[in-house]
TrEMBL record:
<feature type="domain" description="Dedicator of cytokinesis TPR repeats region">
    <location>
        <begin position="1"/>
        <end position="91"/>
    </location>
</feature>
<protein>
    <submittedName>
        <fullName>Dedicator of cytokinesis protein 3-like</fullName>
    </submittedName>
</protein>
<dbReference type="GO" id="GO:0007264">
    <property type="term" value="P:small GTPase-mediated signal transduction"/>
</dbReference>
<dbReference type="InterPro" id="IPR056372">
    <property type="entry name" value="TPR_DOCK"/>
</dbReference>
<dbReference type="GO" id="GO:0005886">
    <property type="term" value="C:plasma membrane"/>
</dbReference>
<dbReference type="Pfam" id="PF23554">
    <property type="entry name" value="TPR_DOCK"/>
</dbReference>
<dbReference type="GO" id="GO:0031267">
    <property type="term" value="F:small GTPase binding"/>
</dbReference>
<dbReference type="InterPro" id="IPR026791">
    <property type="entry name" value="DOCK"/>
</dbReference>
<dbReference type="GO" id="GO:0005085">
    <property type="term" value="F:guanyl-nucleotide exchange factor activity"/>
</dbReference>
<dbReference type="GO" id="GO:0005737">
    <property type="term" value="C:cytoplasm"/>
</dbReference>
């Protein structure tokens, strides 16, 4: 809980310049790829797990906003460095808005529809 709040606060305060400097400080594409995979895994977990109580709607919305903003800031680095290269994307094709049962790589079956 404490670490999540610190990470979210840090990311919320970062600007485009901060993200550009962060990306530029990686020594290799492999280091950058490892960082991007780790941050995407953290984001996936934040979206899947209930970090905050259900009645903390503002904090849950703020978390989603921070994830979206960070992804927008980091997307140029992803595009520039990995568009043509193979990016070992084993984060379940990171789509936090897609229910897990819609993921073609998931073993979870869709919920039954109760018509009535």
């Amino acid at each position: 809980g404490e670490y999540v709040s610190c990470l979210l606060s840090l990311l919320r305060q970062m600007t485009d310049i901060h993200f550009q400097r962060l990306v530029e400080n990686f020594q290799s594409k492999d280091e950058l790829k490892e960082f991007l995979l780790k941050i995407l895994c953290v984001f996936r977990n934040l979206m899947k797990l209930s970090i905050f109580p259900r009645d903390w709607n503002i904090m849950r919305l703020l978390t989603s906003n921070i994830i979206l903003t960070t992804a927008q800031y980091l997307s140029p680095a992803l595009h520039k460095n990995f568009t043509e290269a193979e990016f070992d994307f084993k984060v379940r094709h990171f789509n936090p808005s897609m229910p897990e049962w819609l993921d073609p790589h998931s073993s979870i079956t869709p919920p039954s529809i109760n018509a009535g």
